[in-house]
Design brief:
Layout: H1 9-21, H2 49-52, E1 63-72, E2 79-89, E3 92-99, E4 107-118, E5 121-130, E6 136-147, E7 150-159, E8 163-164, E9 167-168, E10 172-181, E11 184-194, E12 201-213, E13 219-228, E14 233-242, E15 247-254, E16 265-274
Antiparallel strand pairs: 1-2, 1-16, 2-3, 3-4, 4-5, 5-6, 6-7, 7-10, 8-9, 10-11, 11-12, 12-13, 13-14, 14-15, 15-16
Length: 280
C-alpha cells in the first residue's frame, strides 16, 4: 500500500509565497458584487464563482442559486448600492447584477460562465455584458489542487477591455492560494492591473482567514483585507456565515481613505446548494 506523508509546514508556506508573488490583478471597478469582498478565487465553488473564478463552477458537481444585496452609507445616507442573483447547474452559470454605486445612475451587468473539471483541478471562462450588448468582456480561470491542504488559482479578467461608465478597464491577472488548517483556512492573492496609456502594472495584494465552528451552529467567520504595494490597507471585509450546503449570512466592509474606518457597506447573502456527488 502506498504510504502518504504529510507535507511539511515549510513546504506549504513556500508554495503559498510563490502563489502570492506571481503577477496578479485588481478587480474591475464596480463589476464584482461587493457582497463577495470576503471571498478568494481559490476557495469559492458554488454559484458565486461566476463572479470570482469561473473555474470554481467545475470544482464540484452541484446545482446552486445565490442572491445578495448591498447597502452603502459612504455618501452619508444609507441606500441600496447593488443587488445580485445567480444560478449554477453542474458548471453552467448565469448571473445578473444591478449596480447603483453612482448616485442617480444604474447599470445592469449580466454574466454567462462555464467551469469544467480537469484532472486535479478545473478550468472556466465567462462572457459578460456591461449595460449594453455592445460592451463586453471575458474572463478565464484555473483552479488546481497543489497539495492535500493547498489549492491554487489564476484568473485573467477584463479581456477585451470593457468600458464601465465611460472608463476603459485594464486587463487584470490574479494569482492566489488557500491553505486549509483543520477548522481554519488562510487565503492570499496577488493582483496586477495593466496601466492604461503607460507601461507596466499596478500591483496590490489580498489576504484573509476563515474560521469554522460546528457547534452550537455551523458558523464560518471570514475576514479579508486589500493592501496596496506600499502595504497600506485600502479595503476590508468581515462576514459571518451560517454555513453548510445552504448558507446565509451578513457582510460588513469598507474602502478606507485614512486608517481602517467604520463599515461603509453592509450585505445580506444567501446560497442554496444541492450536491449529488462530493469531490474526492
Amino acid at each position: 500500500m502506498k504510504r502518504h506523508t504529510r507535507p511539511s509546514p515549510v513546504r506549504l508556506a513556500a508554495c503559498c509565497c510563490v502563489a502570492v508573488l506571481l503577477p496578479a490583478g485588481q478587480a474591475i471597478a464596480q463589476a464584482a458584487p461587493r457582497s463577495q469582498d470576503y471571498l478568494f478565487i481559490s476557495d469559492v465553488d458554488d454559484a458565486r464563482a461566476a463572479w470570482g473564478n469561473p473555474a470554481g463552477l467545475g470544482w464540484t458537481p452541484e446545482a446552486s442559486v445565490m442572491g445578495a444585496m448591498v447597502l452603502d452609507r459612504s455618501t452619508g445616507s444609507l441606500r441600496l448600492r447593488q443587488y445580485t442573483a445567480g444560478l449554477n447547474s453542474h458548471g453552467l452559470a448565469l448571473a445578473y447584477e444591478r449596480d447603483r454605486s453612482v448616485p442617480d445612475s444604474s447599470m445592469g451587468i449580466a454574466r454567462l460562465a462555464l467551469g469544467v473539471p480537469l484532472g486535479r483541478g478545473a478550468i472556466g471562462a465567462s462572457f459578460t455584458t456591461y449595460g449594453s450588448h455592445h460592451n463586453t468582456g471575458f474572463e478565464l480561470g484555473v483552479r488546481y489542487r497543489l497539495l492535500a491542504e493547498l489549492d491554487g488559482a489564476v484568473v485573467l479578467r477584463n479581456l477585451g477591455h470593457p468600458v464601465l461608465r465611460a472608463t476603459p478597464q485594464p486587463a487584470v491577472a490574479v494569482a492566489g492560494a488557500t491553505w486549509r488548517l483543520g477548522s481554519a483556512a488562510v487565503s492570499a492573492e496577488a493582483l496586477a492591473a495593466q496601466r492604461l496609456g503607460a507601461s507596466g502594472y499596478e500591483v496590490s495584494y489580498r489576504a484573509g482567514i476563515t474560521v469554522r465552528a460546528a457547534r452550537p451552529w455551523p458558523l464560518a467567520l471570514h475576514a479579508a483585507a486589500d493592501m496596496g504595494s506600499d502595504g497600506k490597507v485600502h479595503g476590508w471585509a468581515v462576514a459571518l456565515i451560517l454555513s453548510g450546503l445552504d448558507r446565509v449570512g451578513v457582510v460588513a466592509g469598507a474602502t478606507p481613505t485614512d486608517g481602517l474606518e467604520a463599515p461603509q457597506q453592509f450585505s445580506a447573502v444567501g446560497v442554496a446548494t444541492r450536491r449529488a456527488v462530493a469531490r474526492p
